[in-house]
Design goal:
Blueprint: E1 3-4, H1 6-13, E2 22-27, E3 39-44, E4 51-55, E5 58-63, H2 65-70, E6 75-81, E7 84-90, E8 98-101
Parallel strand pairs: 1-6, 2-5
Antiparallel strand pairs: 2-3, 4-5, 6-7, 7-8
Length: 102
């Protein structure tokens, strides 16, 4: 399971997605999740096996199951950069940051 910090949840709550769609975190590659996998944050349709992050009873973010399993124990956080706010996925085992500009 991937956790989402309060700062990242605040950013996700600002996203206005069309009816029937959700904010999703998906792997970019079709070959599956590997050490080199890039992630994409975007709007898409919910899938039955997604990890669901909720806030106040509503779906805030859905994470593709293979990605959720590969990054188990990680945290998504909002970080400040020179270009503005960005999202970082902080792995539990080594503390390295993988940024996905927002």
């Amino acid at each position: 399971m991937i956790t989402v910090t309060e700062d990242a949840r605040d950013l996700f709550r600002e996203v206005d997605n069309p009816d029937g769609t959700v904010l999703r975190l998906d792997p970019v590659t079709a070959e599956g999740v590997t050490a080199e996998t890039q992630v994409r944050l975007g709007i898409g349709e919910p899938k039955n096996n997604d990890q669901v992050v909720q806030h106040e009873g509503e779906d805030l973010l859905r994470i593709a199951r293979p990605l959720s399993e590969a990054l188990n124990g990680s945290a998504i956080d909002l970080v400040k950069t020179l270009e503005g706010p960005a999202l970082a996925i902080k792995p539990p085992d080594n503390g390295l940051l993988v940024s996905d500009g927002y």
